[in-house]
Amino acid sequence: MLNISIMNMNTNKIYGLYGDDDVLLNAVKSFMNEGVKINEVYTPFPVHGLDKALGLRKTRISDLAFVYGAYGLILMIIITWYMMIYDWPQDIGGKPSFTWGENATAFAVPMFEFTVFCAAHFMSITYLIRCGLYPGAKAKNPDPRTTDDKFLIEIESDQVDKVKDLFVETGAEEVSVRRFIKA
């Protein structure tokens, strides 16, 4: 008979609250130099250089923008062909609609507009889903002051005293520890 035991793992999340974005950026660099892994940084506005200091990769939203724009362009080509050439061809100004290619310049503006429309809207939806900002999403922010004027660094570590000392050395206004039990 196989005996399986489940161990509970205790996890400490240490939070350091900062009042200035420059102090926060220097603190992030100090933590990275010490080899302490930062889980998350919460800021009320984008901090220039924070992504590089954290070692984050380039976002792929621009690649998705191209895909969404190409989708919009192809869809509009199909729509204009179907409506203006196949389904209801019209003789406008004495110029009959024989093929889509002969009339492509007339469709340039709607194709461009629909390409931009699809890219912008699908990128916005992707961003909201990826960031968890869609309606009904549970808030992940551990301190509501970070939506106003404070900056927060979250670190998950077993070395609580070392991390607390690093927070104090780097100029944190507040340091708090929360213990989580993972089953």
TrEMBL record:
Highest taxon, organism lineage: Bacteria
Name assigned to this protein: Protein of uncharacterized function (DUF3341)
Keyword Transmembrane among UniProt keywords: yes
Keyword Protein biosynthesis appears in the UniProt entry: no
Membrane spanning stretches: 64-84, 104-129
InterPro entries: ActD (IPR021776)
Keywords assigned by UniProt, alphabetized: Membrane, Transmembrane, Transmembrane helix
